Amino acid sequence: MGKVVMYNVVSVDGFVADENDRPGPLFDWYFNGDVPLDEGGELTVSRTSHEYIRSYWDEIGASIFGRHVFDMTGGWGGESPGGVDHAVVVTHRPAPEGWDREAPFHFVDGIEAAVTTAQHLAGDRTVNIAAGDVGGQVLAAGLVDEVRMDVAPVVLGSGKRYFGSVEAQHLLEDPDVVIQGNRVLHLRYRVRR
Questions:
Q1: pLDDT tens for each residue of 83-99
Q2: Does residue 172 contact residue 191 with C-beta atoms inside 8 Å?
Q3: Are 90 and 62 in contact (CB under 8 A)?
Q4: pTM value?
Q5: Mean pLDDT throughout 11-32?
Q6: Taking the CA atoms of the chain, what radius of gyration do you get in angstroms?
Q7: Which residues are CB-contacts of 118 (< 8 A; sequence separation ≥ 6)?
Q8: Which CATH code for domain 4-190?
Q9: Distance CA 26, CA 29 (A)
Q10: DSSP 104
């Protein structure tokens, strides 16, 4: 089984979006470089960010998202975000009516089922969990191996927390990756067991 990683862009004060689910300037660094990050060339980052992010994105075999993010994005038009092979959606509801059953999405009830399904689909590749409420629940359940953050130099003041509503203390190891990009700091921590 591959590792399970909680990941997202985060503000310096720990938010992944404002209270209205808007990232504001958190994603500005995705457009301030000269190296295309995605196949369509919509995202352009610094060479340093490209080397770090692209290699991580290439190792992801499945991603886990909450139903709220799925609905908010319109299910990414049926295309798994970031070109990942499989997307697992944590939800208590079935797939939307008329949903294309051939789309690479799997709807499961509960975080344990989501991690198990994602690990099966990913095989030896990484399972990526979007930070926020679902990511925080998976961390609290002790199922996260690594935390990755792309810290943008932004203070949002309030909004959707990176770790969701996690209330208990969780220890991380010292960062084993600290990379400065253009208007972003890439950090990687292993979860202490």
A1: 899 999 999 999 999 99
A2: yes
A3: no
A4: 0.94
A5: 96
A6: 16
A7: 4, 61, 62, 63, 64, 86, 88, 127
A8: 3.40.430.10
A9: 7
A10: S
